[in-house]
Amino acid sequence: MNDRIDFPMNATETDAAELDAADDLSAFRSRFHFPRAENGGDAVYLVGHSLGLQPVAARDYVDRELEDWRRLGVEGHFEGDNPWMSYHEALTDPLARLAGAGPGEVVAMNTLTVNLHLMMVSFYRPTPGRNRILIEGSAFPSDRYAVASQAAWHGYDPAESVIELRPREGEDTIRTSDIEDLIEREGETIALVFLGGVNYLTGQAFDMERITRAGHRQGCVVGFDLAHAMGNLALRLHDWDVDFAAWCSYKYLNGGPGCVGGCFVHERHGRRDDLPRFAGWWGHDKSTRFRMPPAFEAIPGAEGWQLSNPPILPLAALRASLELFDEAGMDRLRNKSMRLTGYMEHLLRTRLPEELSIISPPDPVQRGCQLSIRTGPAGRRVHGILSEHGIRCDWREPDVIRVAPVPLYNRYTDVHRFVEVMAGELGSVG
Predict the structure, then answer these.
(1) With a threshold of 0.90, does the pTM exceed it?
(2) Nearest of 15, 10, 48, 42 to residue 337 by alpha carbon
(3) Which residues have C-beta within 8 Å of that of residue 335, sequence separation ≥ 6?
């Protein structure tokens, strides 16, 4: 795909409507619930990077399990249309397809930071000569807290053991070549390369394949936080040879607030007996789990990292969304995503060439379905006015508005409406 996508220079609302009419994914919009704006219509919802919308089918999926709980009680673990004992396994194949993984390499379990700690128990194995962790400097705070606490747990000073990648002076995103160069220089001291697949602040999509290759050349373990990448990018974790990854499911996967996250563990690690792990009974061999043996025997693959039986009601809501992803296809969604952000960028640069700067990469291939806009001192007020107009987006101090046109349910007319309001207000208050 070209770095730039061509749109009419003076794109109008009619142009946006024509793009929507030609969109072969447009029907999926009707399969989500939208918050209401003050005028009684649907809000322009551009904040799926924080919480995805509720699929219309989610209530039915959850109600089925509530009914089985009412009707069957504990026997619901083994009876009913979807017995709870194996319920999480129904999500394995669709998650594997989104991750670009084999079914044995993924599992739905826990929440994101819990899973990151479980992964680092196994994959961050520091030694006096190799104990450093490489992360991006603008990583989400929870990731920074997690890696710092892991280094400290092993007796190392996080100030020395955690390396933070920064963009070059005057730039907003990190060049892949600079990541590769740093790994080549410092790799012998780095135990773990751990980045976000998509940076939450800038929307930059890291080249996970190149980064993994660079890390492995230096003997580093390579893992990724996919909170902003799962359901956003077309992933190929197995083929890229990533060691591990973890994600949440309440953003682009639309599983609902605090929904069950997931993990990827490459198949070459799935049967390793030399990897330490924190064990729990749900990760124990299924054939002997209920015999309650004294010694833990891990299920081969990612399931062996499970601790407890999963929460069925959140899984039911997530299942409703994953079926939509299977129906739409991630490649089609990714293509629309790049066109939506390309359209938004085109409109912003046409209407507001001086009033703001876009800190997301200019190449749609190198970003997720997000543009991060540096607004200057008027930004907070503009964000409030956008909200008054029924436009939901995200504010990050000191001066960034993050906007996510999600391809499953957003339209070109949503993007046009956002830019129209943005342009009107920045022009009046700038």
Answers:
(1) yes
(2) 48
(3) 1
